[in-house]
Each structure stands twice: as C-alpha cells, then as structure tokens.
Design goal:
Elements lengths: L2 H27 L2 H22 L6 H18 L2 H18 L3
Amino acid sequence: MSSLSAVTSSIFHLQANVEGLCTGLVAEQADATEAAQLVEINAEFGRLVWRGANGDKDATDYRAINFAFHSQVVALAKSAVLTKHTEVLWPVAISILAPL
C-alpha cells in the first residue's frame, strides 16, 4: 500500500469512527422531529437512486445529499468536540474525493 493510500485509508477510518460516535449520540437523544429530518434526507437518496436507475447519471445531487445527511447527523449529535473533529476531517476527505 502506498503512503498516500495509507493516509487516505486512515482519514476515512477516522471519519467513520467520529461519525459513528455521532450516530450513537443521535440514537440516544434525538426526538421525533429530528429523526424525521434524517428520514427525509434518506428519502432524497431513494429518489436519487430511482433517477439513476432511470438513466440520470448526475452525481452532483448525490454529493450534496450525502453531505446534508452527514452534516445533519453531526449537528443532531450536539457534541462540540465531535463537530470540531468533523470540521477538520471533512475538507480533507472532500479533497481526496474531488477527483473521483
């Protein structure tokens, strides 16, 4: 494994673990309205998948919806420490994904 792919892998593992902690907090403390926000964003994914299955190959919507979902999970976790970690990690992860 090249050093770049090792760094990339480490960043994504770290991001996944931070967001996993956020998800646990959301599961413990979100109310019905907050959970409904995540359900609605997830429904947007479903509509996007349906569009893709019917010939629409635009990935722009996917990235926006994906970011909205992950952002909402972090916001609903209500943890300043985890929010700060994602603010540092997301730009790095996005810069890695940008060329893809």
